[in-house]
Amino acid sequence: MAISLLQPTFEGTMALIDLDKIIIKRTILGIRCTACGGNLVVSNRKSIAGRLARVISFGAVKPESYVCETCKKTFLLL
Questions:
Q1: Which of its termini does the chain have fewer beta carbons within 10 Å around, N or C?
Q2: pTM higher than 0.90 for the full model?
Q3: With 80 as the cut, is the pLDDT of residue 75 above it?
Q4: How far apart are CA 20 and CA 30, in angstroms?
Q5: Are 61 and 49 in contact (CB under 8 A)?
Q6: Count of other CB atoms within 10 angstroms of residue 20
Q7: d(CA 12, CA 68)
Q8: First CA to last CA across the chain, in angstroms?
Q9: Is the separation of the CB atoms in 29 and 62 below 8 Å?
Q10: Which long-range contacts (C-beta less than 8 Å, at least 24 apart) are formed by 1-4?
Q11: Quick one: average pLDDT of 25-30?
């Protein structure tokens, strides 16, 4: 009788994961926000200064825009 109580009751079930709710953001390790010390995340928006730097350098410099997660301050990394 004791052996039958130790058998698992959920033998063939699997957990479901809702992939629509998982958001993965690429953070920059080692670079922190100068104002609050938060993590910097790559931004989808391109700044005018970044576009201008790319045009002037004929594409040799590829600037990327970053945003702080906590204070929403924008940064341009050349």
A1: N
A2: no
A3: yes
A4: 29
A5: no
A6: 6
A7: 44
A8: 70
A9: no
A10: none
A11: 64
